[in-house]
Design brief:
162 residues; 1 helix; mainly beta; 10-stranded mixed beta sheet; single chain
């Protein structure tokens, strides 16, 4: 089974659990040919592939496919709800006791139970070829508060992330 997923892997301007803050433009230096690895909890082998990354005003948004059936099932059951980045810092500065990352090499984006930046969540998924995406509204701690399926060609009103 292949499961397509999408969500924010990094949200700008948020102090994460490590005390780091990522700023716009700091991570989006990867080439289109070399996407970061897709892992689980920053460990083990790749479980899928990231197909697209887009930097928005809010953060770095990823779309990809999970090829590992067991991992895909965990996403569908809301056992893995978050995304987390693995990176090497190239440049950073201290600001009010926080490390502000201004340049980093993005190594991998992991599917996680609870990430350092709890605003980084898998917000939609679908089985490959399925006409409907399942969109999740998630609380800050990663628990699912609601889920709806939207068929291809349907539209929904976009909401601003909290």
């Amino acid at each position: 089974m292949t499961l397509q997923i999408r969500g924010f892997a990094s949200v700008f301007g948020v102090v994460d659990g490590q005390g780091d803050v990522v700023v716009p433009g700091s991570l989006f230096s990867m080439s289109a040919e070399i996407m970061p690895a897709m892992m689980v909890e920053h460990q083990g082998d790749q479980v899928g592939a990231w197909m697209r990354a887009t930097e928005t005003q809010y953060g770095l948004y990823f779309e990809g496919s999970i090829y590992d059936t067991a991992v895909a099932e965990k996403v569908e059951k809301s056992e893995l709800t978050g995304l987390s980045i693995g990176y090497r810092v190239k440049r950073a500065r201290l600001y009010r006791g926080r490390r502000v990352i201004t340049s980093a090499e993005l190594i991998e984006v992991s599917l996680v139970t609870i990430g350092a930046n709890q605003s980084c969540l898998i917000d939609a998924f679908r089985r490959k070829g399925a006409p409907a995406w399942t969109y999740r509204k998630l609380s800050k701690n990663g628990s699912t508060t609601s889920a709806i399926s939207i068929s291809a060609g349907s539209s929904i009103e976009a909401s601003t992330p909290e």
